[in-house]
Amino acid sequence: MSRLDTKQRILDAAEQLFARDGFHRTSLRAITSKAKVNLAAVNYHFGSKKALLEAVFERRLLPLNRTRKERLEEVLQNARKRGVRPEVRDIMRAFIEPTFRFRESEPGAQDFIKLIGRSIVTPDSTAKTVLLRFMKPILKTLSEALTEALPELPKDVLLWRLYFSIGALAHTMHLDKRFQFEPLNLKAETDVKSLTNMLITFVTAGMEAS
Amino acid sequence: MSRLDTKQRILDAAEQLFARDGFHRTSLRAITSKAKVNLAAVNYHFGSKKALLEAVFERRLLPLNRTRKERLEEVLQNARKRGVRPEVRDIMRAFIEPTFRFRESEPGAQDFIKLIGRSIVTPDSTAKTVLLRFMKPILKTLSEALTEALPELPKDVLLWRLYFSIGALAHTMHLDKRFQFEPLNLKAETDVKSLTNMLITFVTAGMEAS
DNA sequence: CTTTAATTCAAACAAATGTTTTAATTAAAC
DNA sequence: GTTTAATTAAAACATTTGTTTGAATTAAAG
Fold this sequence. Notes:
Two copies of one chain form a homodimer. Chain A contains nine helices and two strands; from the N terminus they run H-H-H-H-H-H-H-H-E-E-H. Chain A is mainly α. In chain A, helix 4 runs antiparallel to helix 5 (88-103) and helix 5 runs antiparallel to helix 7. The first copy, chain A, binds a DNA duplex (30 and 30 nucleotides) through residues 1-3, 6, 27-29, 37-45, 48-49.
């Protein structure tokens, strides 16, 4: 068993189980059983359960946020070239679309998106603390882009609206092929393109509300 | 120690700790320690940890949902009397405002609102399952009211927008005097009236987006 | 091939957890 | 006051959990 293989298998299993059951409710024995490795391998390769969580985040979030940042900068540059304000819709799309694209790229990515969504909205938890550390730079970039798009909007109102948007996005990330929001008969069968567009329409309208 | 006192103390402690740490991460020993009762009292009075959770929800959610339902029906009746469609804003206010009003009524209520917010957005967990059972009727009423307000909107789009709104509301429920969303420098010091209005404005615009 | 380093293995450790059990205490009924 | 019912208390049970330990195995280096 190669070193890279063991680590990958642990990361894959952890990603899946953290997403499904949360950080605290996922035991290391469940992860190692799923990964078919020995329990002590977690400590050997990652040091601790928390460090494993950080590794899970880092593996996927750095590239995802890089994509988001590139998309955002593209929107801003295009607007500056044309001497106009960036469009809120383009900004929100730049942030949201890579999320859904990424989710569709492979099964593990779907679990990861679920884990992010879950971690954003869980107060005071280890996962959230770790996640926000990774998210802080991109959220800063996002709020600055929105300030350019909506310069007359009071800063606190803008940030609150962004906060609501993040809540809506995070909530949407929970859905997958197996999960449905039963009270509203919502199923995740909706194709991802129209779901993305619906969400972008919703948050754009909310950001621009007068 | 009277019977009502013990039960209340357990419920109060459970409410607070479930909100802070979640259902699974809160041990019965933590609850009973906080409530200053014996561990076996939980089993004696409630039967199981899960039944305690249900009792926590039931205690607060039934009156809260009753208020919401009354408010919704009032909006609908007023509109029907005037022979017009109900306003989306009025509908969302009828659903959201009692939540914030309730949160401000006492410290325990704030914990409870946090617990709801937390439970709505946690996939596949005991708390969510229990909560949605209580929420199903009011969500049905809400979606019906919105259908009256937005009769031309395709039903699935309406339901998705409602789902996004619930995500935004749930995310907002996490904030309290101690908690802030650090990446955006958001603090819960914003007065509740303007926060309520900001959220209602946001989701109303999102629901009405064209 | 031998030596060193890396990795895996299995057991152990100390602590935590929900539920159950039995005895003791308290409260209510008469 | 006595009897019955309700409630609390403390211990036990069986299981689970993250971390650690030392030995065994495998891989890499020379």
